[in-house]
Amino acid sequence: MGIERTFSIIKPDATKRNITGKVIAKLEEGGLRVVASKRIHMSREQAEGFYSVHKDRPFFGELVEFMMSGPVVVQVLEGENAVLRNREIMGATNPAEAAPGTIRAEFAQSIGENSVHGSDAPETAKEEIAFFFKDEEIVG
Ligand code: ADP
Ligand code: MG
């Protein structure tokens, strides 16, 4: 426990529908604070590099194309137990299985186009934050 940081992405299906504010409101209402944020259009290198852990999965190509299909918002979230808390607020990967009130239950369109990414462990969070942000871009 304790104050922790995690990495979050608002995915292209959400930026396209102009609901980044609604997604951020869920994160803030859930007790997390945005301490770094930028809107970017991912290159193929970034999308493939970021998701390299999934490179042998059957959905890898589709996932990379989707993440390059429009702008995303990459952000660092801070708060008590932030990694797990963010995963709770996001809900299950498949929106059909996501708990009511979660971001994915309310906004996701499919298991692939599921509106948000969140780190799955503190070590992954550190790596993912460093993939997109310099230390001086994070203002707590
Ligand atoms: P999470 O984002 O909940 O941590 P994973 O790490 O398992 O989920 O998968 C990474 C991302 O890959 C998912 O958020 C989703 O966008 C995509 N994905 C996962 N499983 C599938 C699938 N069966 N079909 C298409 N896309 C998928
Ligand atoms: Mg994951």
What report would you give on this structure?
- The protein has 140 residues and is α+β, with helices and mostly antiparallel strands.
- Helices cover 39% and strands 20% of the residues.
- The chain has 7 helices and 4 strands.
- Strands 2-3-1-4 form a 4-stranded antiparallel β-sheet.
- The radius of gyration is 14 Å and the shape is globular.
- The relative contact order is 0.26.
- The model has no long low-confidence stretch (mean pLDDT 98).
- Adenosine-5'-diphosphate binds next to α4.
Using only C-alpha atoms, the radius of gyration works out to: 14 Å
Number of helices: 7
N-to-C series of helices and strands: EHHEHHEHHEH
Helices and strands: which structural class?
A: alpha+beta
Low-confidence stretches: none
Proportion in helices: 25-40%
Shape verdict: globular
Order of strands in the sheet with most strands: 2-3-1-4
For the biggest sheet, the summary is: 4 strands, antiparallel
Distance between the termini: 18 Å
Bound molecules: adenosine-5'-diphosphate, magnesium ion
Strand content: 15-25%
What's the pLDDT, averaged over the residues?
98
Care to count the β-strands? 4
Give a nutshell description of this structure.
This protein is an alpha+beta fold and 140 residues long. The chain has helices at residues 12-16, 20-29, 44-50, 60-67, 82-90, 103-107, 122-132; strands at 3-10, 33-40, 72-80, 116-118. The model has no long low-confidence stretch (mean pLDDT 98).
